[in-house]
User: Which sequence fits this backbone?
């Protein structure tokens, strides 16, 4: 693996290029992006795709990538320009792009702005409450997670996040009547260390979940857009947003193994099924070959 650094507007972006074991077989490079997850989260998935050049990166201000723009918020349009710069440094598109969670939101912004960069986009579980039929209540539920984190710190905030993202169906009065979950039930710390800079739970992420896809642009691009959803995500927050985004864009919806992080290593804190996930991803990408 070759680790490289690229200077963009207000950031130093660190990315990794893993060459194909057999010379790539004519496939375009496969770029993988997440948010707030950095490149390390894709290690297991990449290991099951040895026939492709795989490129992973750390978003600005996360992992090994630094930022000098004076900002702390994670804005999809800004991160999209960073990914565009990485693709240009690789020699230009089109590449194939697998994007997960907030990375899927960045990917939608990238394709809207630079459709020539991407041949096939697989956007896996973009967390966009604004596309849901119960958008106002979903956004209220997410705001409550941020408020819990602001008031009580990481453990209670993460417990609230898990409870919110595990809720099945629309966010009703029954959901809002639930008592605050106990962090200890989820193995989370109950104390407050005073930090309020978590990229998932703090206001740093609101531009990601508040993003509105540019439907006119995305339905006009030559890029094949596929929305991925985990088989275990049916009815829960990101499963519902995936279905809604696919319907909004008229895009193909493809079911992937496991859950929201279904590509994660089996020995990680959130184990998935990376080998099966890689097989499904290869099928989707090869379907456009």
Assistant:
């Amino acid at each position: 693996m070759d680790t490289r650094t690229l200077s963009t507007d207000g950031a130093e972006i660190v990315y990794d290029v893993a060459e194909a074991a057999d010379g790539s077989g004519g496939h375009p490079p496969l770029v993988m992006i997440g948010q707030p997850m950095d490149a390390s989260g894709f290690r297991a998935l990449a290991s099951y795709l040895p026939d492709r050049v795989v490129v992973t990166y750390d978003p600005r201000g996360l992992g090994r990538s630094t930022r000098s723009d004076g900002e702390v918020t994670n804005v999809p349009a800004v991160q999209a320009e960073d990914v565009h710069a990485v693709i240009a440094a690789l020699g230009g598109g089109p590449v194939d792009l697998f994007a997960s969670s907030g990375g899927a939101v960045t990917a939608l912004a990238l394709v809207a702005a630079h459709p020539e960069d991407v041949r096939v986009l697989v956007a896996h579980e973009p967390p966009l409450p604004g596309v849901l039929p119960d958008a106002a209540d979903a956004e209220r539920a997410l705001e409550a997670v941020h408020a819990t984190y602001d008031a009580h710190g990481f453990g209670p905030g993460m417990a609230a996040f898990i409870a919110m993202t595990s809720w099945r169906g629309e966010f009703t009065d029954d959901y809002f009547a639930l008592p605050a979950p106990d962090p200890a039930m989820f193995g989370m710390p109950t104390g407050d260390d005073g930090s309020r800079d978590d990229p998932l739970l703090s206001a740093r992420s609101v531009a990601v979940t508040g993003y509105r896809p540019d439907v006119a642009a995305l339905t006009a691009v030559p890029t094949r857009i596929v929305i991925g959803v985990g088989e275990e995500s049916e009815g829960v927050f990101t499963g519902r947003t995936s279905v809604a985004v696919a319907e909004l864009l008229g895009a193909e919806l493809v079911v992937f193994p496991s859950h929201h992080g279904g590509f994660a290593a089996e020995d990680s804190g959130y184990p998935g099924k990376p080998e099966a996930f890689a097989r499904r991803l290869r099928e989707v990408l090869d379907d456009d070959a």
